[in-house]
Amino acid sequence: MQLANSQGWHIIATEKVKFLVEELASIMELRVGDPNGYQKLIFLRRESGKEQWKKPGGMLDPKIPENLPRNGWKVHDLEALKLWSHVNVPDVICEIGPQKNHDLEIIRMWLSLHPIYQRALYSGGLPFHAALIERNGRGVLLAGQGGAGKSTCCRRLPLSWHALCDDETLIVRDDHKRYSVHPFPTWSTHLRQSSEQTWNVQQHLPLAAIFFLEKSEKDEVMHLGQARAAANINQSAIQAYRGNWSNMDSEENRYFRIKLFENACELAKSIPAFRLRASLKGRFWKKMEKVL
Q1: Domains of the chain (ranges, CATH numbers)
Q2: Which letter, b or e, does each residue of 58-67 get, where b requires 16 or more Cβ atoms within 10 Å of its Cβ?
Q3: What pLDDT, on the 0 to 100 scale, is given for residue 138?
Q4: What is the pLDDT of residue 52?
Q5: For residue 242, which phi and psi values (nearest 5 degrees)?
Q6: Hey, which residues does 276 pair with through a beta bridge?
Q7: Which of 84, 88, 162, 180 gives 4 a disulfide partner, CB atoms 3.0 to 4.6 angstroms apart?
């Protein structure tokens, strides 16, 4: 998995959890590849009743010669899974508990993206609760609370626009402080239904603008100042990151909330943000085109 800012991940799995990683790869349109020098996200299945599996070193499959340290790992327990990190290695171990049901496995897939979001955050990026739409090769974000109409607006767009996702995205920043955005899965479509929808998470677009969506009787676009834009960006990032707060200690929680806000402020300085009021029958995209 390669991102626009040259960050990447090599995702691998032990035999007992291989099927889950294959499904994750299918949903995210990732292909099988050889080791590529990127840091690794290693999936393991913890079997109930095995005391030696309390530490990740006891879970490593001998078929995966990772040469990782056996001790000194720190765990972030997200309840549905555990993420193990080590100060001396860039790789992350994703420990999956005993298999129970389809919905739980989907939630585990979603939470397993935490290290990817976290690393993007370190370099100035943000996970973002928004739809990603494209026009003329540029990416535009439609952000809003659940029920604000993101999916409806995506379905109503004319052929000159193209919707890449309708719920979750990842914004990344490169060394030149340029922002690009990737589409990420709408995990709710895979919960309690056998959806076959997929998202090409490696596809990316230069980020041109962010529109914060509101339902209205008429179509209208208003420019947001940097302070209001930063506050709205921060809120959308928190919504996308919400599943990753579980069981963080207070110091970690504080660090990530500060980092989200700092990155939101930097993004607001570089990318124009607007309030978009959209009606059910109007041509809201025409208002957007005038300011792009």
Answers
A1: 9-112 (no CATH), 126-291 (3.40.50)
A2: ebbbeeeeee
A3: 97
A4: 46
A5: -60, -35
A6: 213, 221
A7: 180
Q: What is the DSSP letter of 47?
A: P
At 248 the pLDDT is 80
Per-10-residue mean pLDDT of the chain, 292 residues long, equals 94 89 96 84 75 54 62 87 90 87 90 94 96 97 86 94 96 96 94 84 98 94 97 95 79 91 98 96 95 95
> What residues pair up with 216 in beta bridges, in sequence order?
none
**Read out DSSP for 150-204?**
HHHHHHH--TTSEEEESSEEEEEE-TT--EEEEEE--GGGGTTS-------TT--
Whole-prediction pTM: 0.92
Output 185-191 pairs: Cβ under 8 A, ≥24 positions apart.
185/27, 185/28, 185/110, 187/106, 187/107, 187/109, 187/110, 190/27, 190/106, 191/103, 191/106, 191/107
- CA–CA gap between residue 106 and residue 96 (Å, rounded): 12
Q: Is 67 helix (H, G, I), strand (E, B) or coil?
A: coil
Direct distance between the N- and C-terminal alpha carbons of the chain, in angstroms, rounded to an integer: 30
Helix (H) or strand (E) holding 25: helix 18-27
Closest CA to 287 of 175, 211, 202: 211
